[in-house]
Amino acid sequence: MGRKFKTKKSLGQHLLISEGVIKRIVDYIDVKKEDIIVEIGVGTGQLTEEILKRAPKILYGIEIDERVYPIIDERLKNYKNFILIKKDYFDVDMRNLVNENKIKLVGNLPYNIASLILIDTVFYINLINFSIFMVQKEVAEKLVAKPKTKAYSFMSVFLQTFFETDYLMSVPPRFFSPPPKVVSAVIKLVPKKELPIPLEEIKEYKKFVSDIFSNRRKMLRSKVDTEILEKSGIKLTARAEELSIDDFIKLFKIKRVDLKG
Questions:
Q1: Last residue of a domain, one of 141, 157, 191
Q2: Could you tell me the residue range of the domain that residue 210 belongs to?
Q3: Could you tell me the end-to-end alpha-carbon distance of the chain, in angstroms, rounded to an integer?
Q4: Which of 24, 61, 71, 259 has the highest Cβ tally under 10 A?
């Protein structure tokens, strides 16, 4: 079914067609009968069907491409625990969708917007049990990157502030239709037990981290008040990629206190 469907490059679509890989991903999802699962990007439903075979309480599938709706309807018509949300992910408010229930968030994310989706999921962190996503390997490497490495970036810091990130497996292009030009990877994101930044401050923290990573080769003293750096015990000559996640959190908190003062 997936092979007959013509993917759209503009939507970043690559359909996963390997049964073995699909089963492994769903093993990671660890479906329980009480689970509420939200899948971002149903496509032609290969991953969706394998999740449904394992009988979660309910699976909401979000899909923007109306060309696949008839394929999904036909493929999944016998599953009463499946609800298709015919919208763009960014037009869905998951709080309204699941009524503040905890969810498992999953999906083979469209390559062209995977980073934006990952960043957005932080704002739903109080709803998420954990997320399992397929992304480009390059994006996955950023999610687990450590300071002083090339891959360490705004996304590394922002996501790792709130989630424990785990690189589960690589997936070569041959397992997709059409085969992408890059290797993919499956990642797991588990919310930290204690959020270091309150929910109402996440937007502000996101901007703070983003600002520090703009012109990443510049020293911090050109972006952060020297008094704040001194209070944090961070060298004035340090650069963004040298700071640990704890350093970013500490800087942000001191800056906020200073602004209030």
A1: 191
A2: 199-260
A3: 62
A4: 61
Closest CA to 140 of 106, 188, 90, 206: 188
Beta strand pairing call for 58-62 and 36-40: parallel
Q: How many structural domains are present in the chain?
A: 2
- In the predicted model, what is the mean pLDDT of the chain? 92
Is residue 3 a part of any domain in this protein? no
Higher-pLDDT residue of 23, 256:
23
Q: Answer whether residue 2 is part of any domain.
A: no
| Count of beta carbons in the 10 Å neighbourhood of residue 196 | 15
Give CA 36 to chain center in angstroms.
18
**Same domain assignment for residues 58 and 78:** yes
- Rounded to an integer, what distance in angstroms lies between the CA atom of residue 77 and that of residue 198? 41
In this prediction, residue 1 carries a pLDDT of: 39
Considering 171, 191, 211, which residue would you say is the last residue of a domain? 191
Q: Which of 10, 20, 175, 2 is nearest to 72 (CA)?
A: 2
Tell me the residue type at 157: V
Residue 142 has pLDDT above 80, yes or no: yes
* Residue among 69, 67, 109, 74 at smallest CA distance from 89: 109
Is 4 a domain residue?
A: no
Assigned domain for 142 exists? yes
Residue 43 sits at the vertex; the CA angle it makes with 40 and 47, to the nearest 5 degrees, is 75
CB 1 within 8 Å of CB 75: yes
- pLDDT for the residue numbered 46: 93
